[in-house]
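Today's session is about reading a structure prediction critically. Students often jump straight to the picture, but the first step is always the sequence itself: look for stretches that repeat, for charged clusters, for runs of hydrophobic residues. Only then move on to the predicted structure, which in these notes is written as discrete structure tokens rather than atom positions. Here is the chain we will use throughout the hour.
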Amino acid sequence: MGKIPIKNKIKNLKPSSTLAINEKSKDLIKKGKKIYRFGFGQSPFPVPEKIVECLKLNAAKKDYLPVKGLLDLREAISRYLLKRTGNEYPAENILITPGSKEAMYLMHLAFKGNILLPESSWVSYNPQAKIAENKVYWIKTSRDGNWFPTTLQIKKIIKKLKSKNNILIINSPNNPSGTKCNNLRELADVAKKNNLIILSDEIYTELSFDKKYESISKYYPENTFISSGLSKWCGAGGWRIGFIAAPKKHKNFLESMKVLASETFSTVNTPTQFAAVEAYSGNYDDYLISTINILNSVGQYVYKNLKSNNVILNKPQGGFYLMPEFLNTKFTNSAKLCESILKDTGVALLPGSDFGFNSKKMIVRLSYTDFDGSLFLRNIQNNTIIDDALILKYAPNVVEGVQKLSNWAKKF
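Below is the predicted structure for this chain, in token form.
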């Protein structure tokens, strides 16, 4: 038998760059190399103990749950969204998925139309759209605009499109830039006038450094889908549990997604769904205050010690990313830039070209989570002022990696 034929749209895909850099970093570490893991964006913090205990208590539960997910969990998420956004997303309009990544993928598969992506956008939006055979249109953004589109840019791109079936994806705080969208109301107004569908990826919204949960659904609930999960704010990335919530009038669209779910993953694993009820029902304000305090302090440290005449970047406003741009370099593209940095310094980064930028733009994504979050959490209180000495003590890899990267940048 010869080679098994592969569809062209699959042939042209490459592995998710975030997962690839994680595996590459681990391989290099196994070989004895000192690697600063700034490439993979994973929460460094432990899952809150009460949620872990809930998982243990339900570990013996083995029966299949409904395709849409455990009713108690969907009701808990419905209450959670009402409290955070002021909008009612009924339990019947919520689908539980194995991570929010799968939720977005199902939406791409069910939808027929165009996907509008700002530069910068998470690495998997574009490949998922390609798999689903939806056309992607990139919207150029700027540092001055916090890397989010302006209303004028949205108007221009919609005017060019013949189809009225368009989804705009908004992710704030943003991966990869670490910035927040300051013009949600204005974008909502333009979306409403042009009947745009919004997919609001709110996976980092709980990690806003100003502690304000800001959702575009507040201004445009009738056409805003919300996806999120426990990976980032709860530290449960490996648990693989997320959700998508559909506006009331789009219940039929969610039913199509449910059909796709039934033919692919059937249902999300049962014990984790029971534990997630606790996550969305319990009060974890103290946990969030402490983790945000650490992430904000470490992020500001990296920003302060990396910015220079050769490196420009926006201040971090949420999540755990920064997006430096290297000036006056000799490299032809951002991928080669990252390869050189890894070889010369041991600092693992991701090129901006993976996030929608022109490869000639020397932008990279930096995740400042290479530290022991459990140790850091145990040694600070909610109101602790985290100075450079504490960061050096509890995040030494971040301090050392940033110093090496800063010294490297001074060569140009």
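Discussion point for the tutorial: The chain has a mean pLDDT of 94.
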